[in-house]
Amino acid sequence: MGIGKLMDYQFNNYTVDEWREKAEQALKGKTVESLCSSTYEEIVLKPLYSADDKKNPGFAGKPDYRRGIYQNGYQEKPWRIAQKIVAISPEELREKLKDAAANGQTAIALEVGPEFTAAHGEVIGHFAKSHPFAIKTTTGIDSVLEKLEKKAGQGVLSGYIAFDPILLYEKEVNHEDWAESIKTAAVREPVLRTVMVDTGVYHVRGANAVQELAAAAATGVSYIESLLDAGMDIDDIVDKFVFNFQIGSEFFMEVAKLRAARIIWDKIAEVYGASEVKRKMVIAAETSKFTLTLFDSHVNLLRTGNEAFAAVLGGVQYLHVDTYDSLTGATPFSERIARNIQLILKEEAHLDKVADPAGGSWFIEELTEQLAEKAWELFCKIDHHGGMVASLQSGWIQTEIERTLNNRLIDSKNRKRSIIGTNVYANLAEETPKGMPVLNIPIPTRLSVPFEELRIKAKELETAGVNTEFGLICLGDIRDHKPRADFVEGFLSPGGIRTVRSGAMFTVEDALTFIEEKGIPNFCICSSNELYEEVGLEIASQLKKKHPDINLYLAGQPGNSQEWEAAGIHDFIHAKSNCYQFINSILNGLEVPGNAQ
Question: CB–CB of 549/521 below 8 Å?
């Protein structure tokens, strides 16, 4: 084919039905629907999306703002790099702010509490005219404004200084006092946003995207009502809002979550009578605390990079990226790397050059639509329960979120959901991190906590003199035993249990010698199904007869499990085993020297 013919070549225009026919031929009897999967939001993800799924997404900068609040996207107004500065003294704060500003930071981001002094305010106020603020406060905004304005003066602050007065397991919220402080701040700082809706507290307790969106909508309505009662105009009210979301690891779901959030807020503001230009949702985002891991912490760089990418594609206005070592204490190096993730997305990936790069994707548009619909439905249920405050006080919303958390934990414990470096590919050569966070908390705020507790427990047993090794009896040649021996090693390593392998064994005597040499309580027979059928049952029976005190396991899931159990097999290790429960039972069965009864 010459270049002329090649340039004129036309690809066939196949239909979805034709694709389905070819796909089901390749699936050899299975249907295309067998490739579908369900999310924690109870949304079914299809293997193929087409023009049939296309919704009219509108235009960026136009209602319903799903495609972003600016017509030209980040070219019109780039997202603000808002890495949170952590400093104790005013002097340290000054140096860190100077360094951050000189190295790409474009917003002054802090979390402030009672320790925020006038001296801190003077340092930050110096940057008021050059940088917008991205400040979360736990003490109300009046005192913070007062300290900042001493240096900066009134009417010059931009960005946001805000807090969300509704917290999980909440007590009564004094909305009247809070509303008055918002009114006062609006007069003093007309451009500054002071009303925050923060869904992070739900995110770190396992909430799915639908629950986060519904909570944000219900909380926003609660604050609108309070501020209307205080006499504020609806346009002035919605102009004060900033929404804070944590961005999880499900990339496309998180992109769609932010797009759906703007749809919902646009509808709410429209119902209350806000003008079109004021219905734009301003979003501050941060990478997820829920997905961070203590062990193999450098994998957190991949997590935060993925989450930051999703946040930018979702159309945020402020973004904070956690350091990979934030659980044990950030360093200047890790702070620089976290900030550089954003600079790479901006300066090297050029994500600020395209308005809504996710727009038009049939998959993302359909996912956005489904999220918005499901979140609106849950928002209506919250309203039926009396609103956000009443739902929190009754415990109803916590129960809904806890159900999602339990599903996430089940999937992580049986390794249906992988946590790299934690429940899969655990590196036992890694030193236990120093400055570890407290893990014995009633509700995990990170998905990896259960396995981290196992690793720490195993280390404590080793320190106390307990041999936690797990023996692998490798029957047959390497091709017979290696696949299952590798699997068992990977299965046990998330709990800090090291395996020790025998050489290739062919007789009961070889296995008995290995057991007697090791003197440990737990062993697993690893081999092929063929050898299991030929000699496995006999070997297991003889081993258990000679050493009745050992716990003997089998790698695999044989159909004749009852025969194996009769031969002395205590349990089976296979892909469907609950990894967490198995390892926990092993560690609980190990005795500390001197503690035996």
Answer: yes
Number of domains the chain contains: 4
> pLDDT, tens digit, for every residue of 193-225?
999 999 999 999 999 999 999 999 999 999 999
Place of tokens 């009864």: 597
Q: What pLDDT is stored for residue 168 in this prediction?
A: 38
* CA atoms of 544 and 541, how far apart (whole Å): 5
Helix axis angle for 396-413 and 579-588, nearest 10°, is 80
At 496, which CATH number?
3.40.50.280
Q: Are 401 and 199 in contact (CB under 8 A)?
A: no
CB neighbour class for 289 (10 Å; exposed up to 12, middle 13-18, buried from 19):
middle
Angle at 138 between CA 134 and CA 141, to 5 degrees: 65
Burial 378-389 (b: 16+ CB within 10 A, else e): bbeebbebebbb
Q: Which residues contact 553 (CB under 8 A, 6 or more apart)?
A: 522, 523, 524, 525, 569, 570, 571, 572, 573
Does residue 235 sit in the same domain as residue 338? yes
Dump strand ranges (E) for 295-443. 318-320
- Could you tell me the two tokens for 448? 């990896």
> Which of 177, 595, 574 shows the shortest CA–CA distance to 414?
574
Query: Looking at the domain assignment, is residue 71 inside a domain?
Result: no
Q: What is the DSSP letter of 595?
A: -
pTM for the model stands at 0.93
How do residues 532-557 score in pLDDT, each as one tens digit? 999 999 999 999 999 999 999 999 99
Mean pLDDT score of the chain, rounded to an integer? Answer: 93
314 contacts 254 by C-beta, under 8 angstroms: yes
- For 392-396, which contacts have Cβ atoms below 8 Å and span 24 or more sequence positions? 392/166, 392/168, 392/169, 392/170, 393/170
Flag whether pLDDT at 596 surpasses 70: no
Domain that includes residue 36, residue range:
3-51
Residues 414 and 469 in one domain: no
Residue 33: pLDDT band (50, 70, 90) is very high
